[in-house]
Amino acid sequence: MTSQPAPESTNPYGTGAQAAPQRRVRVPHLIAMKERGEKWAMLTAYDMYAAEIFDEAGIPVLLVGDSAGNNVYGFETTVPVTVDHLVPLCRAVTSAAKHAMVVADLPFGSYQASPQQALATATRFMKEGLAHAVKLEGGKAMVPEVELLVRAGIPVMGHIGFTPQSEHVLGGYKVQGRGAGAEKLLEDALALEAAGCFAIVMEMVPAPAAARVTEALRIPTIGIGAGPDCDAQVLVWQDLAGLRGGRAPRFVKKYADLRTALGNAAKEYAADVAAGTFPAQEHSFLE
């Protein structure tokens, strides 16, 4: 009996949790993972080294978020972030990530005026930043923007629940989708799916409401403070790595303490320089 070759897996990261990435992650891979019930992780990335490390670790989706405002540029909110702030960061990430899908945030004021403005901004990210997809905030009101971008061939990730660009209207960082808001959350999600979004981020919403949306949608949901039933989860990498000081949001789990590690390394370096023990002979060029 002649053996037949095994069918190609639809999982771009192989069959095991530690399997090496084999090819670029695309929208159909993420849809297929939801259909199989496979959960996956998304992380932010704003530079080549983070992108390279996370890509090699098998993170399938990297987000060049407007959270760079808080984590790169030192702004208090994401509102001041511009397209010119993010395009160079996006290009650095896409140049380093060989397998992960790279999604670029459309910053505040760069897409809300009209679908045509959204298309012009998204086009910059695709052409100059080399992004593979874009993300925008908002529910049913963003349907015309999503439809035009998708029609133009640009994959779009939605973002509902707490939307940081609207924090002044929402009254600060508050959980969304409680009580009657749960119905609106579902309506927004269904509208974005119908408009062509390939995935939807849900931020700071009650876990039961997020679970209901996840069950209702064909496309993946990505939670951040939205409970365990979403198809995927996203964190800001500096939060995950413990780089940021101060109190972290409730939904953050700190997997490392890079702030302490880097601080100790800097102190040790400064002490070596002061003592004259660095640079040593092995760090110097000799004739």
TrEMBL record:
3-methyl-2-oxobutanoate binds at D66, S67, D105, K135. InterPro entries: Pantoate_hydroxy_MeTrfase, Pyrv/PenolPyrv_kinase-like_dom, Pyrv_kinase-like_dom_sf. Its EC number is 2.1.2.11. Its main location: cytoplasm. The active site is at E203 (proton acceptor). Residues 1-22 are annotated as: Disordered. CDD domains: KPHMT-like (cd06557). Keywords: Cytoplasm, Magnesium, Metal-binding, Methyltransferase, Pantothenate biosynthesis, Transferase. GO terms for molecular function: 3-methyl-2-oxobutanoate hydroxymethyltransferase activity; magnesium ion binding; methyltransferase activity. Its cofactor is Mg(2+). Belongs to the PanB family. Catalyzes the reversible reaction in which hydroxymethyl group from 5,10-methylenetetrahydrofolate is transferred onto alpha-ketoisovalerate to form ketopantoate. This is 3-methyl-2-oxobutanoate hydroxymethyltransferase.
